[in-house]
Amino acid sequence: MIVTFCSSCELGEAGFADTFRPALADAAIAAEVRTTECMSGCTRRSTCAFRAAGKTAYLFGDLTAGDLPDLLTFARLYAASTDGNLDDARVLGALRMKAIARIPG
What we know:
Strand order of the largest sheet: 2-1-3-4-5
Low-confidence stretches: none
Order of helices and strands: EHHEEEHE
Radius of gyration: 12 Å
Number of helices: 3
Number of domains: 1
Structural class: alpha+beta
Helix content: 25-40%
Mean pLDDT: 95
Number of strands: 5
Largest sheet: 5 strands, mixed
């Protein structure tokens, strides 16, 4: 799985990827964490994308550092899913309301 954070928004400028990376490792979730300039989610700033080969990709926005636990929950469920789809998004807490796009794999 690859997790990409926008580095142009508040969360990215604050170095959240450097907080997320070790949190994933502590949770034993294998992922490559990247940053990129402007993900064009400017109307819902502080974006993050999850993607993996053959899986549905997700784009989240309006993220804050307080979303860390929900992002870790999503990462764990996404990694365990065969196709990237979740049976029940309610376990994602506030993160489920921050989904911008779900892109078929």
